[in-house]
Structures are given as C-alpha cells and as structure tokens.
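Review session, final week

We close the course with one last complete record, chosen because it touches almost every idea we covered. It is Chemotaxis protein methyltransferase, a protein from Dyella psychrodurans with 293 residues. Go through it on your own first, then we will talk.
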Amino acid sequence: MAARIVDHDTRGAAAGAGGWSLGDSDFAFLSDFVYRHCGIVLGEHKRQLVQGRLLRRLRALDLEGFDDYVELLRTDPESELGELASAISTNVTSFFREMHHYDLLVEQLLPRWLEEKKNGGRLRIWSAGCSTGEEPYALAMVLAEALERTGSKVDARILATDLSPQALAAARAGTYPLERMGGITEARRSRWFLRGEGAYEGLACVHPRLRELVSIQPLNLLHEWPMRGPFDAIFCRNVVIYFDKPTKQRLFERYAGLLEQGGYLFLGHSESMYGLSDSFELVGRTVYRKCVP
C-alpha cells in the first residue's frame, strides 16, 4: 500500500481513562500485529497517533475499548487488517507523480517491449501499492497510447493492488475531483476522462478503455501472492520507505522472482535499494533492472 504514517490529525488522542485509552499491553500487541502484517514499525512516539486514529474504528464497530479491538484482531485478523491499515496510514498519490518514470516508459521501454512481443507475447506491469488508482490509470494512459501509436495487438495488462479497502474502492470507482487532475495534460484529460454531470458534477471519470487495461485487486505485500508473473515492470513507489531493512530485503527478492530477466523495478524518489539486494542494478533515477545471469 502506498501509504505513510502521518503525525497530524490527532483528534481523539487525549481520550479518557479506561477502555478508551490505549494501554501498554494493547499498544504492544498492535505494534507487533502491524509490523507482522503490514511491515510498518510503530514506535512509542506513535502511540497517541494510533490511539486517536483507532478511536474511529472502535466507534464504527461499536466496541467499548481497545481491549475489545485487540480481541477482534486476535480472533479474526484478516477481517479487520485492511481497515486497520487504512486507519493508521494516509494514502499519498497523484497522477504522473515522478514523471521521469513515465518518460522512460514512453520513450524507451514500451516501444521495445511491444516490438519484442508482437508475435504473441504478453506485457504485464504491476502497480504494487496502487492507493486510490492514480498510478495504475496513469500507466494505463501511456500504455494505451503506445498500443494505439504502434497498432500493436499485444496482450497488455496492468495489475493494481493495495491493502486498504477504502483505497481500492476509490480506485475501482475511477472518479476523481477535477482539482486532482493537475498532473495530466489537457490532451490526456480530453482523451482519457469523461466529465461528470448531475450528481457527478465537478468530477472526472476514467475512460472505459483504461478500465479494460487495469485489474484492481486486494493484496498484502507481506502475505502470499497468488499471481505467478512474470512482470515486465513493477512499480512500488513510496511504500518500502516505511519498512525496516529485513522486510525490504525480503520484498525485493520476491519482486526479483516475479520479474522477467531484465525486468524493471521502480521505487519512490526517497527510496533506495543500496546495500539491500544483489538481484538488481541501478539504471536510472530510482529505476532498477533485474540482473541477467
């Protein structure tokens, strides 16, 4: 999930005593649970933030205290994992964020892949931590344009995954406020979005052609992965910065196992693979290529 733990918005942090206060044992359990299932480290300095954020979940579930919430996680962890991840994190994304990645796709990678695969190959890109969908739909735009430009009939698809139920719902809806369209050129707005009317006034809806190219699915990066690959490229941007070193190392090796030989891994602008994996070589700004034996 492309998310970050934020320190603003601590409403509810000064909860009263008793069940509405996050005690030592409950916080210790939550910290361990979030680390094991989400890879995020929650230090003691995050306790008030976590308390304030999770009070909303307690109210939504009609629970009487954090001990009840902890018991829910103990007995049925999968049912609440996505909501927990959403509660303690904030999805940060935009269309065509880190434009140099898309430039590389448009100018070099997509033309090469489409030529190499023109006789029956498959082209697969994975947006790992797709958040509310801006990244996979931006990828779909450049992919659709490349397919149109070349007249290619290559079987091309984009897999978009995230842990957050709210983020996935927004991605599937594919409807965005007009003010969120700042990273998109006017030509692409006209080509790939439909302006909402009536109840959808002030919104833009992604074109059906983009929806055809994108498959949106729930996935926890730390759990088992049902897909077999191989992928030509994986976008995992602004995700691993919140993981510790062992979690990053395991994740990078799993990515390497799903990438084509010479496939590409794209990280966020503040992320690096330095000293974490021998399976990749740096070939551009936060762009890594799987090493060929």
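Two points worth writing down before the exam:
The first strand starts at residue 3 and ends at 4.
Residues 99-116 form the longest helix (18 residues).
Good luck, everyone.
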